Amino acid sequence: MTGMLATDTPNVIADALRDADAVTILCHVRPDADTIGSGLGLGLALRRLGLDVEVSFPGDTPLPDGLSELPGVELLVASDDVVGYDTVVAVDAATLGRLACLASYFSEATRSIVIDHHVSNTGFGSIDYVDPGADCTAVLVLNVVDRLGVDVDADIATCLYAGLITDTGSFKWARPASLTIAARLLEAGVDGARWSRTLLDSHPFAWLQMVEKVLATATLREDALQGRGLVYAVIDHAASEGLDWAESESVIDVVRTVSEAEVAAVFKEGKPGEWTVSLRSKSSVDLVPIAQSHGGGGHHRAAGYSDTGFADDVVARLVDAL
Ligand SMILES: [Mn+2]
């Protein structure tokens, strides 16, 4: 979004939400802290205004441990139990497809609102607030909450902080505005140390054993990407069995530290034959076209997509394309 629209959109959304009696908030599939924190933070704000609110995400797997401790989880309803109100908000979903089995609630709503920061998001709502200049969706939700005139208390601040701290990798690539917002949220009462530990530095012992197996698969292709290099690792279904799916999300943060490779990839087999692929780049490779050519999307330096089949074939489809 550009120009005046970008400044006005949070206001337009706040007016639309104030106008509603009930709101459905939808988070993306395999939810992370930004989508859940954004959903619950907005949900709590709307609840303060007296609206009926339901927050949901696709699928029947429980939330990862840390996220289930966030304030506002009482607003969550199982995807099978979603009512689907006239006004529906999608948070942190780059495409309608990211809402998976809940997509129809969005597309059939009288008023459908997109709040997101993925550069690959081309807008799929009746009101689109898409700002790739934001480090996370949670800061866009904060703009809306401010326009709603709701006081950002410790609970709302905690939900939004969860999105901010995770999408900036503990502020490692945070923009200046995000640090200003972080200060505001901490001053509102967020326990920063607790949520850093809970969301970023906490794994069951079995995670170490999984990482051991997965790092043994690590492969470096220094010739890939015109010599800029690719490193990848494979988490097959057996390696992650018994672990929450979210435990495999952090492996990319280990793999991407390899100095000989500009791009890192981790192939994750959730169910047998069903893969999600996480991509990270350092500075010179735009991952969006790569992810989009495989049916996915994301950010310039962090993107992903899904694939199906045998591990060797899924890996070859990416490696041969680079
Ligand atoms: Mn996000």
From TrEMBL:
Boundaries of every DDH domain copy: 23-163
Source superkingdom: Bacteria
MF GO annotations: nucleic acid binding
Name of the molecule in the record: DHH family protein
SUPFAM superfamilies hit by this protein: DHH phosphoesterases
Organism: Gordonia effusa NBRC 100432
Domain DHHA1: 231-306
Cleavable signal peptide: none
Pfam families for this protein: DHH, DHHA1
